[in-house]
């Protein structure tokens, strides 16, 4: 059985306490994999991935972001902060990396970011280059700059008008709510996540996933997308850090593969020397919850072993 531990540490916002989780292998650990989860989910959803990785000698860790999972103690789900939320959440990811670095000095440390977590990971790679040994970007993408700017303006305007914790049905339908349109007639509002009905239903029935983000969180995320699209910022990355993109070619977040290739090109243009892309035919947004998730995890293992243990 995989050994687990839950703990907490102070958030960068000076107010909240971040809930974190660790999974340990039975043997001596060979590396640390830090999972950075996506929007409207939590680190507990990665239990099966953690069990797979610990069975192969990895320590796995991750935290619930501000406004997510068990970090929420004030009922404000989908809310980062009044201002500067993207920076705060990224700093919380950095703090966990520092904590794990002290626990496991000298071991390779890899960030694995999914969806919004991939955007946070890309932000991390810019802000703290050379402080991780690799990055896995799952379900990533990059919307066109005018659309991102419009989203930031609209969400920011609503936050100023109605309050930073306001939840806008309009913004939700224009963003996350629009992803399901690719899969009509749809069985549920979350068919875009996976072809595996059980996994979709588990998400819909999870009380920690049953919320819509606030307008300020959408604004913060748009600010983050602008930050990671900047050529100036991309040039700050450590070009020797290995990068692994994995996505379904039917993932609307990655524009059905085109957005993933766009980000790949951005990384290559920034000089990154070790970039791998894996697009899975028919796969949707959550490849670790897809019908072929065993294949996806085994491919990840191969990439990790080739980079760090050959």
Automatic annotation (TrEMBL):
It comes from the Bacteria. Residues 28-291 form the Serine aminopeptidase S33 domain. InterPro entries: AB_hydrolase_fold, Hydrolase_4, MAG_DAG_Lipase. It holds the Pfam family Hydrolase_4. SUPFAM superfamilies: alpha/beta-Hydrolases. PANTHER family: PHOSPHOLIPASE-RELATED. This is Lysophospholipase. It comes from Flintibacter hominis.
């Amino acid at each position: 059985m995989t050994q687990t531990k839950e703990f907490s540490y102070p958030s960068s916002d000076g107010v909240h306490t971040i809930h974190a989780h660790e999974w340990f292998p039975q043997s001596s650990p060979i590396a640390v994999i830090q999972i950075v989860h996506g929007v409207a989910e939590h680190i507990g959803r990665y239990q099966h991935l953690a069990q797979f990785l610990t069975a192969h000698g990895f320590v796995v860790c991750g935290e619930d972001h501000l406004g997510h999972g068990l970090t929420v103690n004030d009922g404000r789900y989908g809310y980062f902060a009044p201002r500067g939320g993207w920076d705060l959440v990224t700093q919380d990811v950095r703090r966990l990396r520092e904590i794990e670095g002290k626990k496991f000095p000298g071991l390779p440390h890899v960030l694995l970011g999914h969806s919004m977590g991939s955007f946070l990971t890309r932000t991390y790679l810019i802000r703290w280059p050379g402080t991780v040994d690799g990055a896995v970007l799952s379900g990533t993408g990059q919307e066109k700059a005018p659309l991102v700017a419009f989203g930031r303006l609209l969400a920011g305007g609503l936050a100023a008008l109605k309050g930073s914790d306001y939840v806008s049905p309009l913004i939700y339908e224009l963003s996350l709510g629009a992803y399901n349109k690719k899969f009509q007639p749809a069985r549920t509002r979350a068919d875009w996540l996976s072809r595996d009905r059980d996994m979709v239903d588990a998400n819909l029935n999870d009380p920690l996933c049953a919320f819509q983000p606030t307008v300020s969180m959408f604004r913060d995320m748009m600010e983050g997308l602008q930050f990671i699209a900047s050529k100036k910022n991309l040039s700050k990355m450590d070009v020797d850090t290995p990068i692994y993109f994995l996505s379904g070619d039917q993932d609307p977040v990655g524009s059905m593969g085109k957005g993933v290739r766009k980000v790949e090109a951005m990384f290559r243009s920034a000089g990154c020397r070790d970039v791998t892309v894996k697009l899975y035919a028919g796969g949707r947004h959550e490849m670790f919850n897809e019908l072929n998730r065993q294949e996806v995890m085994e491919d990840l293992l191969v990439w990790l072993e080739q980079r760090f243990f050959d």
